[in-house]
Amino acid sequence: KAGVTQTPRYLIKTRGQQVTLSCSPISGHRSVSWYQQTPGQGLQFLFEYFSETQRNKGNFPGRFSGRQFSNSRSEMNVSTLELGDSALYLCASSLGHSGGYEQYFGPGTRLTVT
Amino acid sequence: AQKITQTQPGMFVQEKEAVTLDCTYDTSDPSYGLFWYKQPSSGEMIFLIYQGSYDQQNATEGRYSLNFQKARKSANLVISASQLGDSAMYFCAMTHSGAGSYQLTFGKGTKLSVIP
Lengths: 114, 116
Hints:
The complex is a heterodimer.
Chain A: E1 5-7, E2 10-13, E3 19-24, E4 31-38, E5 42-50, E6 53-57, E7 64-68, E8 74-78, E9 87-94, E10 104-105, E11 109-113
Parallel strand pairs in A: 2-11
Antiparallel strand pairs in A: 1-3, 3-8, 4-5, 4-9, 5-6, 7-8, 9-10, 9-11
Chain B: E1 3-5, E2 10-14, E3 19-21, E4 24-26, E5 33-39, E6 46-52, E7 60-61, E8 64-69, E9 74-79, E10 88-95, E11 104-106, E12 110-115
Parallel strand pairs in B: 2-12
Antiparallel strand pairs in B: 1-4, 3-9, 5-6, 5-10, 7-8, 8-9, 10-11, 10-12
């Protein structure tokens, strides 16, 4: 069974630009969560999508948004990039229901904002 | 609010020895799950082991076992027979499904270094 895939793996953007990251979950998984990892703040939850609906959202500004498609693939978008958005962005997939708590992560997208 | 505390920023262990990584948690939810993840320098988070709050027995997965002490709110990871490839960051995390969401709350992590 294929694992979680994330594209692109590396990205360099300039302040003020916007970026879109993609995540394809494990086949059959309907929940996709996004996390931001920085040396200072550690791992922080961004949002979770289940069956195309945002089920939960972390404490991030509105510049961070996401969506999920009918095939469970998810995208997250960051508009008006700031230097502090430089981070490793990880997505995780899980069944999302019926006790399927295990979350499996993708390799991450390393975003650098200059 | 949920909180995970990992008090060991870094640890060293001799190859082939066992090591325990500490994790304590705080939650008011009766139903929750506890996880351990390994993150090598490549960045990918690798799922190691899961323990549900209602599970009576400690979880085990190969060389990994989770020492779950519910009354003390601790969920320590034990790695037996350490290998050089075990050198990585280790994160303890928890989730609760009470709100219908599978959000993970992570600790700060412990950097494990295995010495040959």
